[in-house]
Design a protein that fits this description.
This protein has 14 helices and 15 strands. By secondary structure, the chain is α/β, with parallel strands linked by helices. The protein has a nine-stranded mixed beta sheet, with helices on both faces. A three-stranded antiparallel beta sheet has the order 10-11-12, with no helix packed on it. The two termini are 29 Å apart.
Length: 368
């Protein structure tokens, strides 16, 4: 069992907060990229004899690809790899790229889940983030897509500069009134090297204080619960049976195979990542530049903590080696007494209070 991640590095414009590898300057290279991607899939396929139960097209902006290009990639995937007939196949899209014809053709290729990058339903904030769509276009894109493909996920960001609790609650309310099945919502982080980072350095924008951001997260949890959604991972909510299988498998440590410039792979003790270099990628089809690392036992334990404690199920104690379980049980007591962690004979997981300091808790429990 494994997941396949396809990184599409093209964007029509660059959002001010994004630090994923992408380019707005080389859209004419999409055809070359497609052929290089197919070559990589074929050249690395023999090392992956797993059956793939999920496929995820991420970016960048996958919806910048033409249907012809998507079709060629999908054909190569099915020709080169073992794909489960019931595989979840997710395709990220920008609302302004959506139309009925495009979505119908995606469905004909077997894509059965769409993730729409909306981020906010406020036009002023969309303009600030350099998103290309309006709030009205975002809502229309959800309606159009859901009439063809039922399984729709929507992304929202909170904690934007000068955003109020009332404005954030309105964003959630609009999202939950739309025919979506899944909601991913993340607090804004200002990453070094992004335009937003430069604006903060120049003191043009200021981060919201932690108290306000925490209050926004509480609103998010309350509103999604009232709507009947399950809070199955720190930043992810869905109606029953609509969890993101692909991302959930990441958190469970299931192997994933990443192709495309900037894509990551993980299997066993090995992590590999392609360099974010589109020029080299298209000039050397099937031979991307990459780095890799071998994880030792302590690093694997730390990674398991980091990923499993993000989920509702938490960390299953029977998955740990005896010495790792003994170590963990020796250091969790303070967090259990404070009500931040809950321990049962089978598992360890964050409490609702613990979620708010999850990064601190997890880092405190790590060996590294």
């Amino acid at each position: 069992m494994a997941g396949l991640y396809v990184h599409v590095p093209f964007c029509a414009s660059r959002c001010i907060y994004c630090d994923f590898y992408s380019t707005t300057q080389a859209t004419e290279q999409k055809e070359l990229y497609t052929q290089a991607l197919i070559a990589e899939i074929k050249s690395r396929a023999e090392r992956w004899d797993d059956t793939f139960h999920t496929i995820y097209f991420g970016g960048g902006t996958p919806s910048q690809l033409s249907i012809t290009e998507v079709s060629q990639i999908v054909d190569a995937i099915h020709t080169s790899l073992q794909i489960s007939p019931s595989a979840e196949i997710t395709f990220e899209a920008n609302p302004d790229d959506i139309n009925k014809n495009y979505v119908n053709q995606l469905k004909s290729l077997g894509i059965n889940r769409i993730s729409l990058g909306v981020q906010t339903f406020d036009d002023d904030r969309l303009h600030f983030l350099r998103r290309r769509h309006t709030a009205k276009e975002a809502a229309k894109a959800v309606e159009t897509t859901s009439s063809i493909i039922e399984n729709i996920s929507l992304d929202l960001i909170y904690g934007l500069p000068r955003e109020t609790l009332v404005e954030w609650e309105k964003d959630i309310r609009i999202a939950l009134q739309l025919p979506i099945k899944h909601l991913s919502s993340y607090a804004l982080t200002i990453e070094k090297g992004t335009p937003l980072f430069q604006l903060r350095q120049k003191q043009i924008v200021k981060e919201l204080n932690e108290e306000t951001t925490r209050a926004m997260y509480k609103i998010l949890m309350r509103q999604t619960e009232l709507a009947g959604m399950q809070h199955y991972e720190i930043s992810n909510f869905s109606y029953p049976s609509y969890h993101s299988q692909h991302n959930h498998n990441y958190w469970l440590g299931i192997p994933y195979f990443g192709v495309g410039p900037g894509a990551h792979s993980f299997k066993g003790h090995t992590r590999r990542w392609n360099k974010g270099d589109l020029c080299h990628y298209v000039q050397n089809p099937g031979q991307p530049l990459f780095d890799f690392e071998q994880l030792n036992e302590d690093e694997l334990f730390d990674e398991m903590l980091l990923l499993r404690l993000r989920t509702k199920e938490g960390l299953a104690l029977n998955e740990l080696k005896p010495h790792d379980r003994n170590y963990l049980l020796s250091v969790v007591s303070p967090f259990i007494k404070q009500g931040h962690l809950l321990l049962t004979p089978e598992s360890l997981h964050l409490s609702k209070h613990g979620i708010f300091i999850s990064d601190y808790i997890i880092s405190s429990l790590m060996k590294g």
